[in-house]
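batch_manifest entry 22 of 60
target: Alpha 1,4-glycosyltransferase domain-containing protein
source organism: Fraxinus pennsylvanica
requested by: lab member K.T.
priority: normal
notes from requester: please return tokens only, no post-processing; we will run our own comparison against the previous entry in this batch. if the run fails, retry once and flag.
--- input ---
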Amino acid sequence: MEQVNNSQFQLLNHLQRTKRSFYAFVSLLLLCLLAYNSATIFYTKAPFPAKNSPEQASFSPETAPGKSIKSFSVPSSTKLSSSAPHAVKVERPVGKLKTHFPLLFKNTNLVAFLNTSVVYHPKRRKKHSRGFKVKPFSVRVKEFFNANPLNFSCKFRFFMTWISSLESFGDRELFTIESLFKTHPNGCLIIVSSSMDSRTGMQILKPFLGKGFKVTAISPDFNYLFNNTAAQSWYNQLVQGNVNPGEISLGQNLSNLLRLGLLYRFGGIYLDTDILVLKSFKKLRNTIGAQTINPETRNWSRLNNAVMIFDQGHPLLYKFIEEFALTFDGNKWGHNGPYLVSRVVSRITGRPGYNFTVLPPMAFYPVYWSRIGSLFQRPRNETHSKWLIAKLMQIQSQSFTVHLWNKQSRGFKVEEGSIIEQIMLDSCVFCNSSSFTS
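--- output ---
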């Protein structure tokens, strides 16, 4: 009897252990199901990041610490250069900047500044596919000037710079090119610009190519242009973030230096893109123009760098470049441009070794910037009509160019019977297609 009771106790004990194991198994199963369900919910609520990183937040000058500085951009589709140093404040993420000077896009060493302590680097452009590499700047320039048909020679080497977007290269700029080729059909023009050095940019210039004119766009190489000049050290300091760019557009100031480097390396004629060419430069050599004169002494009081004609390696150009590097000030408008050439010429005038000519204002700047609107106006009355006729005859007989001062005249309309309308009729290549409206 005792043995039977003992067997029953053991059976009961076994059943209890089995029951506990069953409950433990069920609990474990429920926990697994709960964990799986939780993981599924988390997965649906927080998916893995996309392969492509989202665009960085916009960065405006208003949000920058300290003074408001004009912004510039880097292309958003390429990677930041790792070859140049960069120092970015940790408390402010690097933003996608907006540009005012795409001229610099292809220059992989250039940095842009929002202030003296925040430095941004432009992104590298993707190289052409299938292993095609763009030729160096110097090679492209020399090949363009030299690779011409036997019946064509680049008798005149023209340079322009374009520091704005491709979209802003409009009718006015195209008409300046028309006037250039109307007066210099055997000239060759290089537009030094990264925005124009593109498939779309060449499409804009295609009508001129169809007419047989020699024109192209090439992105600049600052290192090549400034090599072995005082600007080389200045530019290196700029790249390293040791130069305060100031409040004036850095692109504008670099354009002032770029034109000097182009003429120093290659020689030729530099023109701003708001210069209308009225007659041939064939008799001009090593020439710069006065913008204003002293009414008492009749000597020039200010020069301008919107039109310059110089031989390759001219010593005055070297002095201009040296002055830029030694006295750069990004906070004073014109300090690194018109005022710069005025300072240098005033110092070296009369010294031996410099051979150049300063032409009077009527040569390149027949109308002062504040009065440029008078050239766009139609005759108001008989007296005004006589004045317009006399002014037009004076410009046609004494002036090589007319500076339109685009900043002041961009919004002006060309009125019927105005001086500008007559100049357009005389200077056009595509006479039925050009428009000079704002």
